[in-house]
Specification:
- The complex is a heterodimer of chains A (113) and B (110).
- Chain A is built from no helices and 11 strands.
- Chain A is mostly beta strands and 113 residues long.
- In chain A, strands 2, 4, 5, 6, 9, 10 and 11 form a 7-stranded mixed sheet that branches. In chain A, strands 1-3-8-7 form a 4-stranded antiparallel sheet, with no helix packed on it.
- Chain B is mainly β and 110 residues long.
- In chain B, the strands form 2 sheets. In chain B, strands 2, 4, 5, 9, 10 and 11 form a 6-stranded mixed sheet that branches. In chain B, strands 1-3-8-7-6 form a 5-stranded antiparallel sheet, with no helix packed on it.
- The N and C termini of chain B lie far apart (39 Å).
- Classes of the chains: A mainly beta (113), B mainly beta (110).
- At the A-B interface, β9 and β10 of A face β4, β5 and β9 of B.
Chain lengths: 113, 110
């Protein structure tokens, strides 16, 4: 298993600004994922962030808007750049320590005004 | 895109009732997970099923993986208010590609 923490847990931001979300894992993991979720809805994968390589973005998500860092095997950041109200969502990181089981952080609730 | 359809999308039942949530796809998965998510928290893994036809029980929850590994079901017996939450299935392919279902929001009324 893995224990994941995210910072901040929630934030209210002005449009046009940027927010960096941190994800910390209690063990070394190769695979880390970033998701977006509207309240009560399913998860949409933004990108896969593997240490030692550039993040791989899903269709509809680009690096300029959602730059990701993965400096080591226990940490990653996702930046939501030039925010608009449409970026208001819950942002979740997850890891796959081994096998095919995924563990999630508690999420970051973002409201853009 | 590997689509996982869950049904029903919303479910509101009285405490003590039984219910079944379905997760269907046209794709074959190497494993399938079920998660429950409560408001303000991230999804929490309930179970992973890997073998076609496999049945796993977790107290009042029974999970089944279809024989062809394309679908799954979650059955809850004697639902309790603590079962309230968003239930998500997720199919995995070898190589750790995960595809999440559309979600089922369950409300159990005391």
């Amino acid at each position: 298993s893995a224990v994941i923490s995210q910072k901040p847990s929630r934030d209210i931001c002005q449009r046009g600004t940027s927010l960096t979300i941190q994800c910390q894992v209690d063990s070394q993991v190769t695979m880390m994922f970033w998701y977006r979720q509207q309240p009560g809805q399913s998860l949409t994968l933004i990108a896969t962030a593997n240490q030692g390589s550039e993040a791989t973005y899903e269709s509809g998500f680009v690096i300029d808007k959602f730059p990701i860092s993965r400096p080591n095997l226990t940490f990653s950041t996702l930046t939501v750049s030039n925010m608009s109200p449409e970026d208001s969502s819950i942002y979740l990181c997850s890891v796959v320590p081994s096998g095919e089981t995924q563990y999630f952080g508690p999420g970051t609730r973002l409201l853009v005004l | 895109t590997q689509l996982l359809e869950q049904s029903p999308q919303f479910l509101s039942i009285q405490e003590g009732e039984n219910l079944t949530v379905y997760c269907n796809s046209s794709s074959v998965f190497s494993s399938l997970q079920w998660y429950r998510q409560e408001p303000g928290e991230g999804p929490v893994l309930l179970v992973t099923v890997v073998t076609g036809g496999e049945v796993k029980k977790l107290k009042r929850l029974t999970f089944q993986f279809g024989d062809a590994r394309k679908d799954s079901s979650l059955h809850i017996t004697a639902a309790q208010p603590g079962d309230t939450g968003l239930y998500l299935c997720a199919g995995a392919h070898t190589g750790n590609q995960f595809y999440f279902g559309t979600g089922t929001s369950l409300t159990v009324i005391p």
